[in-house]
């Protein structure tokens, strides 16, 4: 299994002192760089004959590079599997709320991709990259992205909220997420991951209970809402039905290029929760 293979690969790297380890089961591949005895980061490839390890980990990426190496496509994996890997590596024992921390990271990464997409012909380098930085510098960089995301899309986090993970733990999580392209992905890719996280925290006073994604999909497809119809959910909770209805009408793609006026008008005038 993937989780067992990852742990075995790490143990081999420890025993041999190897800076890079590769594991595969024929369908999935994991490449890890052993940065120090307790920290590993994921790599997309092993160095070519003309490259050094430093060349690979310190390379600057544009949005086009991210699209080319997007692990959701290249490795046919899912965001849920990546979050499971993050849990196995650090989140389970990090002493933080896994849902909150993953949400902050995804929020910051969405802003990074969105901002890079606004450059047009001018190439803007992505900031959500681990290579070439110390753990402290990487945490400062992600917190800066989070602040900018809160300015661009206010109302989701408090103004003073920051990443609670330690710099070392954040590097591990960042290396797992940095090669994931979130915008222009099918909504279900993100939805499945948040459903898994919700299930882990759906207890106690938070009361984060919700209708399973597959039930929502079935109901929305049966209703088949159109751009001329209203969608009203009087007990919205996490707004699964309303969000899925919006994306059903829009075409189910999560894009960074902005929405057409008809899409914004539909969401603001026809959908209520």
Automatic annotation (TrEMBL):
| Record field: catalytic activity | a 2'-deoxyadenosine in DNA + S-adenosyl-L-methionine = an N(6)-methyl-2'-deoxyadenosine in DNA + S-adenosyl-L-homocysteine + H(+)
Q: Which GO terms describe its biological process?
A: DNA restriction-modification system; methylation
The DNA methylase adenine-specific domain extends over 189-249
Any matching Pfam family: N6_Mtase
| Entry GO MF terms | DNA binding; N-methyltransferase activity; site-specific DNA-methyltransferase (adenine-specific) activity
Enzyme Commission identifier(s):
2.1.1.72
Keywords in alphabetical order: Methyltransferase, Restriction system, S-adenosyl-L-methionine, Transferase
Q: What class of enzyme is it?
A: transferase
Q: InterPro entries attached here?
A: DNA_Adenine_Mtase, DNA_methylase_A-5, SAM-dependent_MTases_sf
Q: What is this protein called?
A: site-specific DNA-methyltransferase (adenine-specific)
Organismal lineage:
unclassified sequences, metagenomes, ecological metagenomes
